[in-house]
Amino acid sequence: MTSSNQGEADIADVLRKSIGSPGVLTDGDVHARSCDPLRSVPVPARVIARPANTEEVAEVFRLCTQRNQTVVVHGGRTGVSGGAYCRDTDIIVSLERMTGIEDICTVGQTAVVQAGVTIEALQAAAREKGLFYPIDLGSKGSATVGGTIATNAGGNRVIRWGMTRQNVLGLEAVLPDGTVVSSMNRLLKNNTGYDLKHLFIGSEGTLGVVTRAVVKLVPMPTSQSVAFVAVSNYERVTELLARARQLPTLSAFEVMWSDFYTLIASHVSEPPIAPGQPFYILVEALGYNKDIDEAMFVAFLEAALESGLIVDAVLATSDRQREDLWRIREGSEVIVREMSPFLSFDVSIEIPRVDAYLAEVRASLLGRFPQARTVTFGHLGDNNIHIGVTIGRETLACGNEIEKIVYDALPSYGGAITAEHGIGQFKREFLAQQKSPAEMDLMRRLRDVLDPSRLLNRDVLC
Ligand SMILES: Cc1cc2nc3c(=O)[nH]c(=O)nc-3n(C[C@H](O)[C@H](O)[C@H](O)COP(=O)(O)OP(=O)(O)OC[C@H]3O[C@@H](n4cnc5c(N)ncnc54)[C@H](O)[C@@H]3O)c2cc1C
Asked: For the FAD-binding PCMH-type domain, which residue ranges apply (predicted)?
């Protein structure tokens, strides 16, 4: 047995004694998993520990601290910034057995959950009580409450209900030394000292592992209006957004540039609108009074058509049509199939300047890589644009050059390198371009206090 195998046997045995055999995976059960949802990257770690509750998480961390054992935390492994990537000397702590929904309070409109529950499972449980958890993303079948808290995930309904940060009331976390910090606040208003949950939201698992959370729910909407529209220029897109914001029921404003729509439409038997326009937008409104909501939505569309803001529009009239329109916007499978290998970007830019930024980036990409192809889409009302870039087989080898083109253009547009996916491992070298030395220093000092030996998610963030 080699010394590294010996080490693996040791840590696996120690963990089995502590959290039981079902809580520990080794060998093929570890390596068969991927760290990345968009391409297959086997998990090289030594062991996966799957604690069943907070106390077991704390015990695992106490053992790891004693042994100076580095740890990477796994939720649903849907993160696209490399936060779940690890080294062969790491062990994984996965929250996959912590899927309990402990309480749903219909009066307070809160849910208390374990962090490994998926967003889809939480939404299903809330729906049974007439409630809705509004963090809604294409990966919701696998993405977990803990992972979405760690990344401060956004998604499709941010324009109405905000990001994860706005939807978490309290949480419990285990610090790298095994200390449990329970801050399971259920109150909307609570100014009793530091609001510690914000330390962990968006900190990408660098300050502690989120084990439980209290999240806000909203009444389950009873009406859903969805339209798919074509628009002829960017000024009209922004004008349409301004008008859509006057709808009190607006819940999504998803813009697709022609490079995105042309690709997706070529894989749909009956595209809702013919390709050929520069912009396509999915507008959605969720409300509580079907007749009034639908009338308002139709009036909004008619006014936009009459004033020439919209070139063409399709209004969904059945659940099936609404789902079909959303499926076009969620076309990640087509993108993965048709663009791979590709790099995916998640930038934030002031809304009036988005199209100018994209024009500059595309020109720079084509200047350097004439074969470059892009797909561009995003949650425009949240300043958030996703760009997929491929230059063919050389994409990953030239990744750093492509990243520099996309990121170097951002400062002059007041942009940010990540709107919702986080820094992870992939964007780490660009973080210092975005943060002042004082901000970088404070982030590192916070981390030093909680994890002086850098045992937790050591290759992530700062
Ligand atoms: C098809 C698709 C669509 C997507 N759409 C969106 C979108 O609209 N908006 C959006 O924001 N993101 C989106 N994502 C990205 C991804 O789903 C989110 O980042 C999500 O929050 C990750 O959750 P997860 O449970 O999969 O976490 P993982 O991928 O497992 O982990 C992500 C990071 O969080 C850390 N982490 C995980 N769990 C915990 C925990 N309990 N405590 C502490 N740290 C933890 C990990 O160490 C890692 O650094 C999408 C991804 C895909 C594949």
From this structure: 40-220
pLDDT at 80 over 50: yes
Residue range 101-219, CATH number: 3.30.465.10
Distances 321 to 60, 272, 388 between C-alpha atoms, Å: 48, 10, 26
> 332, 260 in Cβ contact below 8 A?
no
Q: Is 73 in the pocket of ligand 1 (CB under 6 A)?
A: yes
Q: What tokens appear for 51 in the block?
A: 């604690």
Which among 206, 181, 186 is positioned nearest to 196, based on CA atoms?
A: 181
Segment 218-222 shows an average pLDDT of 98
* CA–CA gap between residue 19 and residue 12 (Å, rounded): 10
Model pLDDT, residue 7: 54
Quickly name the fold that domain 223-330 has.
Answer: Alpha-Beta Plaits (3.30.70)
Q: How far apart are CA 408 and CA 301, in angstroms?
A: 38
Per-residue pLDDT, 8: 54
User: Comparing 3-94 with 333-419, is the CATH topology the same?
Assistant: no
pLDDT digits (tens, 9 = 90+) for 108-131: 999 999 999 999 999 999 999 999
Q: What is the pLDDT of residues 142-153, one digit of tens each?
A: 999 999 999 999
In the chain, what is the straight-line distance between the N-terminal and C-terminal CA atoms, in Å?
36
Q: How far is the CA of 285 from the centre of ligand 1 (A)?
A: 26
Q: Which amino acid is at 378?
A: G
Least confident of 8-12, 191-195, 441-445: 8-12
Q: Which residues contact 45 (CB under 8 A, 6 or more apart)?
A: 30, 72, 86, 87, 88, 90, 91, 92
Domain range summary for the chain, segments of one domain joined by +: 3-94, 101-219, 223-330, 333-419
Mutate which of 137, 183, 348 for ligand 1? The one with the most ligand atoms within 8 Å of its CB, which is 137
333-419, what's its fold? Answer: Alpha-Beta Plaits (3.30.70)
DSSP per residue over 345-395, as a string? EEEE--GGGHHHHHHHHHHHHHHH-TT-EEEEEEEGGGTEEEEEEE-STTT
List Cα–Cα distances, 312 to 271, 274, 435, in angstroms.
13, 9, 42
Provide the residue type at 399 as one letter.
G
- In sequence order, what are the residues at sequence separation of 6 or more whose Cβ sits closer than 8 angstroms to the Cβ of residue 412? none
The response to whether residue 144 sits with its C-beta less than 6 Å from ligand 1 reads yes
* Ligand 1 center to 82 CA (angstroms): 10
221-264 pLDDT tens trace: 999 999 999 999 999 999 999 999 999 999 999 999 999 999 99
